[in-house]
Amino acid sequence: MIITVQKPLPEILDSLKDYDNVFIVGCAACATKCQTGGEEAVKKISEELKKAGKKVSGSAVLDTPCDIRVAKRDLKNVSAGVFLILGCGAGVQSVEKVTSAPLVPALDPVFTGTVERIGIYHEYCALCGSCMLAGTGGICPITRCAKSLINGPCGGAVNGKCEADPDSDCAWALILEKTKGKGILKDYMPPRSFIKPKNIGRHKKTTL
Amino acid sequence: MNIFRDKIINGGFSVTAELFPPKGNDASALLKKADFLKPFVDAINVTDNQRASMRLGSMAVSRLIKEMGVEPIMQMTCRDRNRIALQSDLLSASALGIENVLILSGDHPLNGEYKDAKPVYDLDTVQLLTAAGMLIKGTDLAGKNLSGTPSFCLGAVVNPTANPVELQIMMLEKKINAGAVFFQTQPIFDVSQYEDFLGKVRPVTGAQKVRILPGVALLKSAKFVKFLLGLPGVNIPQATVDRIERAPDQLAEGIKICAETISRLRGIADGVHIMAIGMEEHIPEILRQAGIKSK
């Protein structure tokens, strides 16, 4: 799921400074699981805005604000001075499609996360467009190697730990352990393509 | 005449040193050191924004020392440039007469002074060696023909002390297959450990004409030894630590130890890469004690 963190309140208030009648949009999907955009988060930020002298005209937690159809269905009759969106960038930009009112994001999207438990997330997938996990024992070198090296480790890995973060395991040490030397380990991996596959539905943007 | 390349191809004990470009455009101190080292070494590595800090460029400094008659080994990391810039810089280096190129991943930006910088690594070392190999054969990575083909003596690094050793051997093999003909290593303090490593890599290097130049560092003081021991993966035998600590003149003892290490490596290694880390003026004395004559 998309991991988000809330922006600092002063930054949110600064973005809202020219507007009033704030309508808060929450997210019942990823941001609820992250505790950054569910009912409780909406309630909390609503109180903080009121305390800062802002008028809050209403709120709604959308099932999936990143779905334009859902945003249209739930927001078409809402009139607001500004929408404050507690969702990821996909959510903000789906709301942009259904309103001409100004938009302010309340969250910073950080990565696609694997959830261990609430608050403990792992950045394991970069949505790179070309999954190589079949050959690497299910361990992704794009996300789990600090340099995203796909032919093997750098010289900085010491005793199975990463040079950029000694608390992290070297992805290639994990891959070696998991695959016991089989898989793609010995193959030459050519340079990655940064063009994403085309024709995913009517998906238009093809580059990262 | 590139003595360094000649020894890599035909054999002979190679001696290399390394110099760090300054922060700023005044290379005079570095050039003075290069000139001083000229009679004693076959080539000098010029580092590429070492420790992920911003410095005068490796290509410019390599050219400057080349003009003085010192053979440069231009270091090139994958950290800061994408495949377009890397290949273009290889062509540029060749146009400036630079032949020896050492290819490395490069220290991660998080370990340097620009922690927020984008870590590029568009190509990894194996892919960059492959790209350089293609340039030599007359095309670029995209398969387009070149007008004029560069000539490179390509090198890479291997870490004999890093675990797991299987991964180091795998990378060594991949780099050899991608065209690396020489290797330089992190500093070796324990010659028997290096011998073990050589035994393990022989199945990979045996049939191929590759030369490995182990790194040797000058342990200039007990304080420096302590600093090194705090770095991950540095293994200095206790006997060596004790010798430096007990010596009345720690620098003289460090020079002696460095020379002894080189003497011992002389029987088993293809050469040495001396890392004097700011104390390059002692390299001639180290080599004299190791019994290596200047050119």
Written overview of the protein:
The complex is a heterodimer of chains A (208) and B (295). With 208 residues, chain A is of the alpha/beta class. Chain A folds into two domains: 110 residues, Rossmann fold (3-Layer(aba) Sandwich); 79 residues, no CATH class. Helix content of chain A is 25%, strand content 20%. Chain A has seven helices and seven strands. In chain A, the strands form two sheets. Chain A has a four-stranded parallel sheet, with helices on both faces. The longest helix of chain A has 13 residues. In chain A, 35% of the residues are buried. The model of chain A has no long low-confidence stretch (mean pLDDT 93). Chain B has 295 residues and is an alpha/beta fold. In chain B, strand 2, helix 3 and strand 3 form a beta-alpha-beta unit. Chain B is globular, with a radius of gyration of 19 Å. The two termini of chain B are 14 Å apart. Chains A and B meet through helix 7 of A and helix 5 and helix 6 of B.
